[in-house]
Amino acid sequence: MKESLLDIICCPLDKHDLELTVEERDEEDGEIVEGLLVCTDCGEEYPIEEGIPNLLPPDMRE
Amino acid sequence: MTPGDERETREAAPNARALAATYDRIAEQFSATREYPWPEVESFLDAREGGVGLDVGCGNGRHAEPLAARVDRVVGVDVSRDLLGVARRRARERGYADALSFVRGDAAALPVADATVDVGVYVAALHHLRGRDRRVASLSELARALAPGGRALVSAWSTEHDRFDPREGDAGFDTSVDWTLPDGETVDRFYHVYHPAEFRADLEASGLRTVEAFVSSGNCYAVVAPGGSSGSDGSDDAG
């Protein structure tokens, strides 16, 4: 995930901004491979999995 | 909320999970048969430009690719993790990955901030949402995400398609269509097949304003703007 994506994405539930915690970056392009996105309002946590943020509402995850 | 609404709300999560599971299973083969963008999408994109593009239900990214040529950056949203994986690989192989980001999300709960999208495509995905409330909510989500002056192309499978018998009235119908895997196993996919009048009515009920609606190759299409019945978004579509 490109860090600049934070300008566009939001919490799917209340549409507030997301705060990024980086766990692993790609060494070549600096993109986030693993991490966490946390809603600044409701606190819901969304994982970044293999570089792709999973922003499905929590009840829709498997 | 009516009892019908409650039922549809309860079905939202199973619908999204089932859809994701289906497309995860068929992702590779599905992608191989979805190589080229639809001409209606290319016509819509012609001469459009902007900062941010959005592809809702992006699948393997075949429409995100021409969109990426028109805007600075594109976000592709899909419910299927495996299709997103295929889409990312395809973007890297074809050299448009720098302009493209992928997000796993639900079309009826878009994880896209308000008024950010200049050019959107929501092609052949709306018809996979079960329940009218969920489909209208999804269209309203697109309206919320569109920037003032932004435009999107929405399409869904139509009752006008030649595989369906002519029907009385202006109602669409729910159906399921099997996808056959290479080993012969079939996976069924939910579709709501839209009557053109019903398609226009759902757009009208949403937060979108319809600029132009038409049927082409058995699909309902609409070019839409934000604003809906509540008023104009300040731009001029005349001419």
UniProtKB/TrEMBL annotation, chain A:
<protein>
    <recommendedName>
        <fullName>Trm112p-like protein</fullName>
    </recommendedName>
</protein>
<dbReference type="InterPro" id="IPR005651">
    <property type="entry name" value="Trm112-like"/>
</dbReference>
<dbReference type="Pfam" id="PF03966">
    <property type="entry name" value="Trm112p"/>
</dbReference>
UniProtKB/TrEMBL annotation, chain B:
<dbReference type="GO" id="GO:0008757">
    <property type="term" value="F:S-adenosylmethionine-dependent methyltransferase activity"/>
</dbReference>
<dbReference type="GO" id="GO:0006400">
    <property type="term" value="P:tRNA modification"/>
</dbReference>
<dbReference type="InterPro" id="IPR051422">
    <property type="entry name" value="AlkB_tRNA_MeTrf/Diox"/>
</dbReference>
<keyword id="KW-0808">Transferase</keyword>
<keyword id="KW-0489">Methyltransferase</keyword>
<dbReference type="InterPro" id="IPR013216">
    <property type="entry name" value="Methyltransf_11"/>
</dbReference>
<dbReference type="GO" id="GO:0032259">
    <property type="term" value="P:methylation"/>
</dbReference>
<dbReference type="GO" id="GO:0008175">
    <property type="term" value="F:tRNA methyltransferase activity"/>
</dbReference>
<dbReference type="InterPro" id="IPR029063">
    <property type="entry name" value="SAM-dependent_MTases_sf"/>
</dbReference>
<protein>
    <submittedName>
        <fullName>Methyltransferase type 11</fullName>
    </submittedName>
</protein>
<dbReference type="Pfam" id="PF08241">
    <property type="entry name" value="Methyltransf_11"/>
</dbReference>
<feature type="domain" description="Methyltransferase type 11">
    <location>
        <begin position="54"/>
        <end position="153"/>
    </location>
</feature>
